Amino acid sequence: MELKFILESLLFSAQKPMSTKELRDVLTDAAAHAEGDETVRSFKKVKEDALTAALEELAAAHEAAARSYRLVCVAGSWQFVSQPEYAPWLKALVGHKSRPPRLSQPALETLAIIAYRQPITRAEIEQVRGVAVDGVMQTLLERGLVEQVGRAEVVGRPMTYGTTPVFLEYFGLRALEDLPAADELRRIPVVKPESLLTADPGLATVPPDQLQLPATETAESASEAPAPAEPNEKPGTGQASK
Amino acid sequence: MELKFILESLLFSAQKPMSTKELRDVLTDAAAHAEGDETVRSFKKVKEDALTAALEELAAAHEAAARSYRLVCVAGSWQFVSQPEYAPWLKALVGHKSRPPRLSQPALETLAIIAYRQPITRAEIEQVRGVAVDGVMQTLLERGLVEQVGRAEVVGRPMTYGTTPVFLEYFGLRALEDLPAADELRRIPVVKPESLLTADPGLATVPPDQLQLPATETAESASEAPAPAEPNEKPGTGQASK
Amino acid sequence: MSDYKVKFEVFEGPLDLLLYLIKKEEVDIYEVNLTQLATEFIRYIEVMRLLDLEIAGEFLVMASTLMYIKSRELLPLDQQVQTEGEDEGEDPRWELIRQLVEYKKFKDAAAQLQTLEARQENIFPRLPAKPEFEAEAPGKPEVSLFDLVNAVTAILKRVTQQPDSRDVFEDKWTVSEKIEVMIKAISERSRLKFSELFAGAMSRTEVVVTFLALLELIRLKQLVAMQNEPFSEIEICRAEPAAPAPAAPSAPEAAATV
Predict the structure, then answer these.
(1) Is residue A59 part of a domain?
(2) Contact partners of B by the rule of 3+ C-beta pairs under 8 A?
(3) Among A24, A37, C138, C240, whose CB has the most other CB atoms within 10 angstroms?
(4) What's the pLDDT band for A101 if we cut at 50, 70, 90?
């Protein structure tokens, strides 16, 4: 029985990185429970040096084997890690059992509109956001953040929506009154500087009428919108889910 | 990028054993999120056969490497496991947890009969063992090693039993075909003659052919069997199981 | 007495006892002398009776079968022929041997399962920690709209508590003016604390206007709001200019740590 293989079996099964001290403790503990097993007892007091040497040898062997994982020492603790080039598959592996994802930006904006303007119809939401909200509404309804609260007394009597107690819980609010400055946020007119005009009126807090811009203006501003990057798709935004 | 190493990295990182279907799903999912990555996309539709072949190759490579762990297939799912000789240290690592009690001799015998002859009725099991199996069956059912799988098409339509995936896991078997000496003990599917059915309700299966008697003889001998008591229904047999 | 009982129960039934007796004789099952076997079996049962032990029904059934076999053996040959002449297969001796052979095979199979069971106890599956992917940027998650909204609530409360906030009734600030102020501030210092944006606000309205300006700039991808950890102070900084090559994902450094 070689020390390095004992260490390998430990590191391969361990759920976290292990320091040489922790490995040594396991060897000692195993020896204490070994009863008559002389082999197990013979590893009772392995020197730190011998441990480190065995681990180095092991790491070199795995490096040489050039498999999809390596044995590495990070901050004094040893662990097996997968090679970075397999990340696309490992992400897919982890992704399968991911918790409900964070709300997307469109979902948050839609939710904000509903929160401040409830009860509100789908058409009104779309007027504010400037885009269809079917998919987003579906998500919000499924996650129980919004619900149907009645019907608007207008032609067609469309459904109206409002937020749920789950919504308050999700954002750590005690009540709807805790939404910041509801009154002000509803009333404040927004007059945007020419240079920053955009195509989609997206702010939840602004009444639709104040966002209606002449069509020409909108088109122009869209084409000259500064830095047309998509931050949430850029690497480095950290927004990234999981 | 070789398929087998991708699979290796997945099994290396997976939190549970994975079937070829699950592995395939991960490959497909990764391809769907690959965007421009042609390598990742190239594994979008790997055939089940190719997967299995790659896994077998991988398992053989790990076997040949003779390290402290192996890649194995248990109950149709692949996972890395340690070699038994490192158990003393791994037990120390996990803290000497108590395991479920080992199965008793009667339980093992009953389980063997069910494993090789499934689907099988309780009466048939008792006929082979020569004793009642009520208590033992209870234990096996509770531990999830066997389950009801249907009903025999004989008088009284008694329940039939079979083994579960837990059974394969418990004994570290890949499939029922891996049972030792399976051929010899496995039930040969033979349509049972009418006479036998009426003679002994509950007997759905047929003894292995090398032990088989001509149907008529069996029927007669059964009806003529001396002391036709029902051993399994005798109270106070004290024999019972556990 | 209970000791005897326990010992007796070591046999998993009459077949088990018979196999034990056969093994003791060191003969093949097919060649066993059934008459002798019957005698021995019945002797066991007699001992049990003498000791007044409870005897399982299966043993009694087997005893009577064996006695039947034994009695047939004792019959004169011509009478045996008469019985057997009907059909060889009904021979209870053959039936018993068939049962014993079959039972023996499963007993052996059970022993093999036991070996596997013991082996399996010493096998430990690799149970890695869930793979983690390093946050793509140095750990600066963007904050949600509602993190901002919550933050502004606190500021509004503070402004409301200022005694002179009502004096500044006439509010000159517009959202666009605030936007320009903010762009200027951020170009001078790359990073601003959320609270700094509101530090000079004299009224609720000014806070709200500032906030709307901030939201607008975030929406226009001019600024990003970040929070190093939940509930820490939100920071505002310039949005990074668009990455020229979005085809360079951060995969290489995203090694899964296990």
Answers:
(1) yes
(2) A, C
(3) A24
(4) low
